[in-house]
Inverse folding.
């Protein structure tokens, strides 16, 4: 039908599909995207979460599944990093640094470009900002033309896929056992040194709690870990408040080598 309409209009019409973020999740909901591409039913695929930005989308899975076809892969971020029913805990994609990091991950693992969805706040004071966002998603060089801020949430997605739903919890039976968080980061994937900070929060923890941190299986020296208590939480802006707990910071230069797909163990 699109070909017929395109002939009448004198232009080619394309068909794209927004799909879950992994081939397994696509199959779970009945979407055989590889077959669509081979049959010519997909000009592009946009793997995405359905209210959240996922930096760990497996773009390479979709590139491999559509190899030998004209189908392109354009992952999509959202306006939010981690969307919750409690709007005070919703993290917004509110800086170009976050979009650069997201786009760098997509391009590094084979995506042909990015796409947009739910980016609709085109008020006059935001037009210039979102124009830059779209440019970054469209150009791998722009994705690395400034600082990158990789930010990860627990990813409470509509279609969960086992271990990719991550939320570290520390009830009594987990004491002394490492709890593992997995995250994908294009920068540092070859073990090169970096400038910046690794930061996370331990909600509801106090200075009486003792913990160790390991990156990719190597424990980080206690003296290189900075801890700040925030007993009353921290108001970030009118939309978001961190819960009470400990803010943990480690200089990237003090971290063991990163390797693309990383693990952070907290015990």
């Amino acid at each position: 039908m699109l070909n017929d309409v395109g002939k009448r209009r004198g232009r080619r019409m394309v068909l794209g599909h927004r799909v879950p973020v992994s081939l397994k999740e696509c199959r779970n909901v009945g979407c055989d995207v590889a077959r669509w591409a081979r049959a010519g039913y997909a000009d592009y695929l946009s793997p995405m979460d359905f209210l959240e930005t996922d930096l760990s989308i497996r773009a390479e899975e979709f590139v491999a599944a559509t190899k030998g076809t004209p189908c392109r892969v354009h992952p999509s971020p959202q306006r939010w990093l981690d969307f919750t029913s409690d709007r005070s805990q919703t993290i917004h994609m509110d800086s170009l640094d976050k979009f650069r990091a997201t786009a760098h991950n997509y391009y590094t693992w084979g995506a042909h470009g990015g796409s947009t969805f739910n980016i609709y706040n085109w008020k006059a004071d935001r037009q210039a900002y979102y124009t830059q966002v779209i440019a970054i998603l469209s150009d791998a060089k722009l994705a690395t033309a400034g600082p990158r801020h990789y930010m990860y949430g627990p990813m409470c997605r509509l279609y969960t896929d086992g271990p990719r739903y991550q939320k570290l919890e520390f009830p009594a039976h987990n004491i002394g056992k490492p709890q593992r968080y997995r995250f994908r980061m294009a920068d540092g994937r070859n073990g090169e040194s970096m400038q910046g900070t690794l930061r996370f929060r331990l909600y509801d923890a106090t200075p009486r709690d003792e913990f160790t941190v390991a990156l990719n299986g190597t424990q980080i020296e206690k003296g290189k870990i900075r801890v700040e208590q925030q007993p009353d939480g921290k108001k970030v802006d009118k939309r978001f408040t961190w819960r009470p707990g400990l803010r943990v910071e480690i200089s990237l230069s003090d971290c063991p080598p990163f390797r693309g797909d990383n693990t952070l163990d907290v015990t």
